[in-house]
Input
Amino acid sequence: MYNGSDAYFLAVVIGYFVGSIPTAYWVAQHAQQTDIRTIGEGNVGARNVFHVVSHRWGVVTFLGDFLKGVVVAVIYRNQPSWLFFTAGFALFLGHAWPVWLKFTGGKGVSTVGGFAATLTPLSTILGAAVAGPVWLVTRRFIPTLVSIIVVALALAPVFDISWQYLVVIVVLFICTGLKRLIDEPRMRQIEASSGWERVGGIAKPK
Output
């Protein structure tokens, strides 16, 4: 890596570019020739694809977004914490406001999740083990994903993750929540026009 401003600039470019890859948009275009920004809840993310395109393509979208976070974390996990945070925050910004989609992106939960899981693999595996029963009981995407996040973060200190990295991860997940609040007015408009039921989703898997 370069030093100083060069390293900072490179982290921003790499993080933003990888984050801005519009997985959900591409998947919906490929599978259904539709613009994911205008259907369902209007979110450019795995949950929307999961409900309005198909469960299978929703999983593909999740894995693609998750992998974006893994890639950036692998590149920067051995760099100074400030550089790691810069790349992680740029990753989130790229996913949330991708230039390719006129700055209409997703929340970033899956992408930040991949970024976090690279640093906390054991606690993430335990979180996934807990998420299995949650899915069986609720059959809902968000509670399942939240259960993974909560368990993984709660157990992360047990596996000796540094507090600096843990703070970075927590801040990034808070950013995903703030992005949801920012997107709320647009999502409600799209839900109203599509008749989307937020809790369970109305589209039938194909």
